[in-house]
Design brief:
Largest sheet: 2 strands, antiparallel
Oligomer: single chain
Number of helices: 4
Strand order of the largest sheet: 1-2
Strand content: 15-25%
Distance between the termini: 20 Å
Number of strands: 6
Length: about 170
């Protein structure tokens, strides 16, 4: 990937040329985030994107909560991925908060509270897994859905994976 950036009125604008379509995570460093390694570190969710060759993407957000950024594009596949990301980022934020809370409870030696939080974490992970599958079913021919399919296809038996995979367009 080649990249250039400019600054205009406090905004940073990146221009990237990518060789192929891909799902990626854009990592931001928030200067206000001061980790305390002795107490454990759980970094907040970052911004997940679907980069499509030739597509223009606009991101509006904050380094404090990058996963909650607003992403817009005129490209159909990027917009479809944003449907996925809108719900996935909320679940990721919930998971981050639950993991952070569990870490605090463990540090306080609150076994019952940590166990309850662990149960909540498993529930959120199940919701994330369910959402992955729901999204692929809702967009069975989309390039964005194919990216999400790669997150869970290994949990399926071969025939079930093939039945879903064969609906995606070949490029």
């Amino acid at each position: 990937m080649t990249e250039t950036h400019t600054t205009d009125k406090g905004y940073v604008m990146y221009t990237c040329k990518i060789p192929y379509d891909e799902r990626c995570i854009l990592v931001f460093r928030n200067p206000a985030f001061k980790p305390v390694p002795e107490k454990g570190i759980i970094f907040p969710p970052q911004l997940e994107l679907f980069l499509k060759k030739g597509a223009s993407i606009t991101i509006e957000g904050s380094a404090a909560r990058p996963a909650m950024s607003r992403v817009t594009s005129s490209d159909k596949d990027v917009r479809e991925f944003e449907v996925f990301r809108a719900k996935a980022s909320l679940l990721d934020n919930e998971l981050w908060l639950a993991n952070s809370r569990e870490l605090i409870l463990k540090a306080q030696h609150d076994t019952a509270g940590a166990t309850a939080m662990e149960k909540k974490i498993k529930e959120i992970i199940q919701q994330k897994n369910d959402w992955n599958e729901e999204f692929v079913k809702a967009y069975p021919h989309g390039a964005a859905a194919l990216q999400i399919f790669t997150l869970y296809y290994q949990r399926l038996d071969s025939q079930e994976a093939w039945d879903i995979f064969q609906h995606f367009p070949s490029h």
